Amino acid sequence: GAGVSQSPSNKVTEKGKDVELRCDPISGHTALYWYRQSLGQGLEFLIYFQGNSAPDKSGLPSDRFSAERTGGSVSTLTIQRTQQEDSAVYLCASRPGPNQPQHFGDGTRLSIL
Amino acid sequence: DAKTTQPTSMDCAEGRAANLPCNHSTISGNEYVYWYRQIHSQGPQYIIHGLKNNETNEMASLIITEDRKSSTLILPHATLRDTAVYYCIVRASSNDYKLSFGAGTTVTVRA
After folding, report:
1. Which of A10, A104, A109 to mutate to test binding with chain B, by most B CBs within 10 Å of its CB?
2. Of B43, B37, B111, B45, whose CA–CA distance to B80 is shortest?
3. pLDDT digits over B20-66, tens only?
4. Rounded CA separation A4/A23 (Å)
5. Neighbours of A2 (CB within 10 A)
6. Using a CB cutoff of 8 Å and minimum separation of 24, what contacts does B56-61 make?
């Protein structure tokens, strides 16, 4: 069956450019999460969407980072004026409801030159 | 959230059962035990979770001790494709839990 889909799978861009990362969650999943994983580092929470509630943005590292979830489905993570320290794998996960596991996409590998 | 302790690495032979231990001695009554794994260059993959009863699915079995202070993930017939980092996580029953992984156990399945 269809899992969480992320695009692009790889993105290389120059420092200072803006990037948009896309996540298509599993159909019917009400919760959507963005994380990032740097080389040798653990999983870092970024932002969480649940239904029509205000998103939990507590993990966003700076105001250069923002995310939207349109129509309760697709989500876009935007990074403005990218910096080299933004290089990481950005992972999206979705979940159908409480006490249910999160299911992850394979991520977008972002490299800032 | 309760902290978990896992061995850093372990090897197992292809076709044999792999038993992955996890200690979570400070687990609370409302906290679930989740197992994920991450194969190189892929996103984390959910394996199984449980509260206090043993659980089994098509991928693995989860054995939770009666006092819930430790658990064991069992891969019944390990294959080379099971080589991955395995993460044991304890999380309370809530609607907005945010995952965080520790170092996990690096499992290498050898032919």
Report:
1. A104
2. B111
3. 999 999 998 888 999 999 998 899 999 999 999 899 999 999 999 99
4. 7
5. 8
6. B60/B35
Residue from A17, A23, A15 nearest A92 by CA: A23
Cα distances from B31 to residues A2, A104, B93, B95, in angstroms, run 29, 21, 6, 13
Instruction: Report the C-alpha dihedral over residues B59, A99, A22, A49, rounded to 10 degrees.
Output: -170
Measured at the CA of A68, the angle between CA A62 and CA A73, to 5 degrees, comes to 145
Buried b vs exposed e over A58-75: b needs ≥16 C-beta within 10 Å? ebbeeeebebebeeeeeb
User: Do residues A87 and A108 touch, judged by C-beta distance below 8 A?
Assistant: no
Which residue among A45, A103, A107 sits closest to B98, beta carbon to beta carbon?
A: A45
Distance, CA of B89 to CA of B104 (rounded, Å): 9
In what helix (H) or strand (E) does residue A50 lie, and over which residues does it extend? strand A43-50
Cβ–Cβ gap B99/A45 under 8 Å = yes
Using one digit for the tens of pLDDT, what is the confidence trace for A68-105? Answer: 998 879 999 999 999 999 999 999 999 988 778 899 99
Q: Which residues of A7-38 are buried (b: 16+ CB within 10 A; e: fewer)?
A: eeeebebeeeeebebebbbbeebbbbbbbbbe
